[in-house]
Structure formats: structure tokens, C-alpha cells
């Protein structure tokens, strides 16, 4: 089962989630996949009671459909429904999906998967090991999206026969199987039929332009239509290999609608032309939606932690004692109450919801502690000569963080300059050490359910300059320890190394202040929609997912007669 953490669900304010959700602009404005290619029909079934069997969601973008090039929220929702993966994330681990079983050699460098036979792509052709090998090699070659999970780790992928595929690694990599929930399998023949001009030699553009808006999967839903910056529509795939027994109430269609404007969203919810809202609704909007008859709020986690990253190369945050002082100048409890309602207080860099998390040294709002650490720093006598720049995106919840931090710093003689900008500006600023501010608040989470996913993406020097790692730690010991942990095949031993790393990062380096273990909140039509996240919310619990997976449509029920 999904890991659950009981919390008191406060229903008054909400955080607007912004980090890591940017995706590129499509080359094609609109596409419609023909019925002959996919077996999908454009019109939803209408039940006898008159309600369409469709789940509609709002989002801040429409999806891009190439799993090798993009990773974002609406895109991930599309991926998990259009494509199958070798394994499916469940609870603290994974369960078989396309793979019936797998084995690893003695030194942990070869993983062999036996595939389920008879799995059909949406065009009716059979999924085989060669498709898996093609997908993995394509992703690594393109090097975008989720490719970082495999680049430098996977040396080769071979189709040993039609139903056996082997991944040859450059060395042992303990969590390898867990990462495969992000390897969305493509139909090789279909992609190869749609190559365009490009830079990949005989592969042209590797089908990138076509896959921006077209379907080459085998998952439970098929693309019906995608109009960028308007909507995405998908229809149930009757021949999905997992079958629909016990899932008869799953929607015949689902639709991602571009737009988060509160008045529009409320009108759609009131008229039952929208089933689930986006998580970017303001606290006021959520409160108003909760007053609509038949509408309730649901909460879930995608293991995001809101961070204040400190630039460890820029005075005065190049001093660990200054960084610890700043960590004691964050009013954690108040910010969770007024900015990140319903969220948990993180105790360390890894989300409480992530497998392998341990509680580390806990920071609290303590002016005297902050003064104590400032006195230990090399800037003890001239801290007032420095101006600390605090950067955030133009979001109300994050403005509360910036203003609170500025006021607390003033209490100990630290000058804070607040700047804000759009997400693209933040990404540009943090891409180089000399342009990264002293402090920047961003949220990030793991792409697979292990603490190592966070440790590697946020603290290994190879990811420096990304939005997930803008502390600019250049620490050979830390790199070596992360690499050693990830190379450890035995899970118990690997998790112990994760625990030691979390304590080392907090106690010895303190590259960030961790403000909130974020909980995402949405409104939904509770009279005729049932889904796991809502069931957990009703029991006062929070279900944890990987990005996109809260909206795995076969797990959602719509009752057309209510």
C-alpha cells in the first residue's frame, strides 16, 4: 500500500506549486490521432443516467507526449496513462507491470527482465523486448526529460529474445529497478515511421517532433486529441494488458484542460463540467469551492519539499555557520500554518513520505541560536556589511516566506534583499554559481521512491546548476559517498548509507533550510467521483505518490448514475 502519514487536515490555505513543472513549447499546435491508428473514438459514452463517463482536470499546461524529452506535472499525468512501464510504483517499492519477473547477476551489473506476452500497443502490434531496448537507448541518446536516471548508468540494453531484455550497467546501481517506473515504453516501429530531419544520424530527429503530440504507447488510455494550450483528451484502450475487470467504473475518457483561473474553475465545478481541479488554486478559491454542493477537498503528497537553497560559494553563505544561523531564522511552524497549510515539517532534506527518510537534526525558529552560530562564523564582526539576496517566484505563499525571513534576519543584523521573477528567470539565475543568489526557495522531489533519488539530484556535483541543486556544493567526499550508496545492491545496507548521508548533509554542510514537506490540495466532485487520494483524505491521512501517479485513471471511479 502507499505510505501514509496521518495529519490533521486544515482546510483554509493552500500552496501554489511551481518548481520543476516547466515543459518545452510544442512544435505543433494541434493534432488528432485517427481511429484507424489507435482504435480510439472521439466521442465519450453517455450512460443511461445522462452523465458522461469522463474525468476532467484543470492544469497549468497541456502535456507533451514524448517521454524522452519532457517531465512535468500534466505531462506526467499523460505518461502514466498512455504508456506502460516494466514496473509500477506501489507503497515503498514496485510491482510487476510489463515485466513478469526479473533477476540480477552476482555483481549487480546486469538486470534481466522477462516480459508478459501478448501486450498490445494502441495500434494493435505486440510489445516486445526490442521495443524496450529501443526506448531506453533513445532516451539515453536524447538525454532530456528523465534520461538523467539512466545516463552514465546504463551502458547497453539488449533484446535477448522477443520477451527477454537485459540492461547492462556500467557498475552496480542499487535502486535501478525502482527507476524503471519512469521508462515509458514506446512502439519502435511506429516511432521509426515518423522520423523527421534531425541530428541523430540515421534516426533523424528520433521521432521527437511527431511524439510531441502523438501516441506510441500501450497504456490504459489512447490519445484522442491534443490542442496545445487548450486541452488534451484520451480514451480508454479496450485491449489494455491489465484488463478492466474490477475497474468497470473507470472513466471512458479523461481530459486535461489548460487554465487555472479561479472564477472559471469554480463555474465549471458548480456546473459539473469539471471533476478535479488543479493544485494551483489559491486558499480563497479552495475555500469557495468547498462551499459548492457536492464538492470536497482532497490532499495528497508527491514527496515535494520546499527548500531554501543557500549558495555555498557566495559570501556570506559560503560559511556553514552562517547557513546554520539562517536555518534558525526560518519560522517553520508559522509558515506551515499560513503558507503551506496541511503540510508537514520536514526534519532533513528527504520528504517524510520517501522510503529511506530519517529524522535528522531539527531546526526551529530560534533567534538566540542564530546569534550563537553567527558568532562562530568568519563574518561575526562584519555580517552587516553583506546583503543577502533572497529570490522567489511571484507566488503569494513564497512572498510570505521571503518577508518572514527578511524580518527575522533583521533581528540579528543581517540585511536581506528580496527579489522575485518568473520560473524561467529562476532557472536561468541558478544555472551558474556566480548568478545564483545567496538564498532561493524552490520545491523538488524524487523521481523514484528512495531517499537516494533526492540525495543524488540535490547534492551530487553532477547536478549542480539545476533547479534541484543550486547550493553549488563542491565536495568530493559527498560525491563519493552518494555514489557508494547508490552502488550498494543490498537494500538494508543502502538505506543505512542514506541515513548516514542525511545526517552528514545536515550537520556538516547545511546547504539548505527545509521549510515544508508539501501536501497538494485539490477540489473534486465527491458525489460521483471516487479515488484513492480522496479516500485517504476522508480518513485524515495522506497518500504519497510519484508525480503523475495520483491521477492513474484506472484507479479512479466515476458513477454516471449519480
Structure keywords:
5-stranded mixed beta sheet, Dipeptide-binding Protein, domain 3, 22 strands, Dipeptide-binding Protein, domain 1, 17 helices, 21% strand, 3 domains, alpha+beta
Please state how the strands of the largest beta sheet are arranged side by side: 2-10-11-12-3
- Biggest beta sheet attributes: 5 strands, mixed
Low-confidence spans: pLDDT under 50, at least 5 residues? 1-48
Task: Please state the CA-atom Rg, rounded to the nearest Å.
Answer: 24 Å
So, the CATH homologous superfamily of the largest domain? Dipeptide-binding Protein, Domain 3
Summarize the structure.
The chain is of the alpha+beta class and 562 residues long. It contains 17 helices and 22 strands.
Q: What does this entry look like structurally?
A:
This protein has helices at 35-38, 73-82, 129-142, 176-179, 188-192, 208-211, 262-270, 283-290, 320-327, 332-338, 367-376, 396-410, 423-429, 451-459, 476-486, 491-509, 532-538, and strands at residues 4-6, 30-32, 54-59, 87-90, 93-96, 99-104, 110-115, 154-161, 164-169, 221-227, 231-236, 253-258, 295-301, 305-310, 387-393, 415-421, 439-444, 512-517, 520-525, 529-530, 541-544, 557-558. A five-stranded mixed β-sheet has the order 2-10-11-12-3, covered by helices on one side. It is built from 17 helices and 22 strands. 27% of the residues lie in helices and 21% in strands.
Amino acid at each position: 500500500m502507499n505510505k501514509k502519514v496521518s495529519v490533521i487536515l486544515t482546510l483554509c490555505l493552500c500552496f501554489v506549486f511551481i518548481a520543476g513543472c516547466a515543459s518545452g513549447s510544442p512544435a505543433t499546435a494541434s493534432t488528432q490521432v485517427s481511429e484507424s491508428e489507435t482504435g480510439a473514438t472521439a466521442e465519450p459514452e453517455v450512460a443511461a443516467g445522462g452523465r458522461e463517463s469522463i474525468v476532467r482536470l484543470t492544469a497549468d499546461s497541456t502535456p507533451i507526449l514524448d517521454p524522452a524529452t519532457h517531465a512535468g506535472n500534466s505531462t506526467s499525468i499523460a505518461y502514466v496513462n498512455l504508456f506502460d512501464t516494466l514496473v509500477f510504483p506501489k507503497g515503498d517499492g514496485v510491482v510487476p507491470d510489463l515485466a513478469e519477473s526479473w533477476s540480477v547477476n552476482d555483481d549487480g551489473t546486469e538486470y534481466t527482465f522477462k516480459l508478459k506476452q501478448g501486450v498490445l500497443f494502441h495500434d494493435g502490434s505486440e510489445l516486445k523486448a526490442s521495443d524496450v531496448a529501443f526506448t531506453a537507448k533513445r532516451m539515453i541518446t536524447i538525454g532530456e526529460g528523465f534520461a538523467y536516471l539512466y545516463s552514465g548508468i546504463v551502458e547497453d540494453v539488449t533484446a535477448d529474445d522477443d520477451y527477454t531484455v537485459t540492461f547492462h550497467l556500467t557498475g552496480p546501481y542499487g535502486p535501478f529497478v525502482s527507476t524503471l517506473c519512469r521508462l515509458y515504453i514506446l512502439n519502435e516501429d511506429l516511432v521509426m515511421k515518423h522520423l523527421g530531419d534531425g541530428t541523430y544520424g540515421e534516426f533523424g530527429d528520433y521521432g521527437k517532433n511527431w511524439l510531441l503530440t502523438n501516441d506510441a504507447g500501450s497504456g490504459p488510455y489512447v490519445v484522442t486529441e491534443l490542442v496545445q494550450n487548450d486541452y488534451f483528451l484520451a480514451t480508454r484502450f479496450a485491449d489494455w494488458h491489465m484488463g478492466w475487470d474490477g475497474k468497470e467504473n473507470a472513466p471512458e475518457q479523461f481530459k486535461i484542460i489548460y487554465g487555472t483561473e479561479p472564477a472559471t474553475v469554480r463555474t465549471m465545478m458548480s456546473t459539473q463540467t469539471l471533476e478535479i481541479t488543479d493544485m494551483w488554486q489559491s486558499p480563497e478559491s479552495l475555500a469557495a469551492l468547498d462551499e459548492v454542493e457536492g464538492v470536497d477537498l482532497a490532499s495528497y503528497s508527491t514527496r515535494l519539499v520546499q527548500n531554501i537553497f543557500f549558495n555555498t560559494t557566495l559570501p556570506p553563505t559560503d560559511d556553514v555557520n552562517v547557513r546554520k544561523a539562517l536555518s534558525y531564522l526560518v519560522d517553520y511552524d508559522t509558515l506551515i500554518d499560513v503558507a503551506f497549510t496541511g503540510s508537514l515539517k520536514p526534519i532533513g532534506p528527504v520528504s517524510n513520505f520517501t522510503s529511506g527518510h530519517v529524522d535528522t537534526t531539527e531546526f526551529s525558529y530560534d533567534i538566540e541560536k542564530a546569534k550563537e552560530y553567527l558568532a562562530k562564523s568568519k563574518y561575526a564582526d562584519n555580517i552587516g556589511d553583506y546583503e543577502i539576496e533572497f529570490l522567489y517566484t511571484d507566488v503569494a505563499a513564497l512572498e510570505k516566506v521571503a518577508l518572514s525571513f527578511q524580518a527575522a534576519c533583521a533581528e540579528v543584523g543581517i540585511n536581506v534583499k528580496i527579489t522575485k521573477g518568473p520560473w524561467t528567470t529562476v532557472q536561468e539565475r541558478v544555472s551558474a554559481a556566480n548568478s545564483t543568489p545567496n538564498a532561493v526557495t524552490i520545491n523538488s522531489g524524487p523521481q523514484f521512491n528512495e531517499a537516494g533519488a533526492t540525495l543524488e539530484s540535490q547534492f551530487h556535483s553532477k547536478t549542480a546548476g539545476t533547479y534541484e541543486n543550486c547550493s553549488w556544493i563542491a565536495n568530493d567526499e559527498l560525491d563519493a559517498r552518494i555514489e557508494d550508496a547508490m552502488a550498494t545492491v543490498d537494500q538494508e545496507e543502502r538505506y543505512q548509507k542514506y541515513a548516514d548521508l542525511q545526517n552528514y548533509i545536515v550537520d556538516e554542510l547545511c546547504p539548505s533550510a527545509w521549510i515544508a514537506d508539501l501536501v497538494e490540495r485539490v477540489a473534486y466532485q465527491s458525489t460521483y467521483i471516487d479515488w484513492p487520494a480522496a479516500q485517504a483524505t476522508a480518513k485524515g491521512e495522506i497518500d504519497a505518490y510519484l508525480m503523475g501517479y495520483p491521477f492513474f485513471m484506472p484507479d479512479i471511479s466515476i458513477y454516471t448514475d449519480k
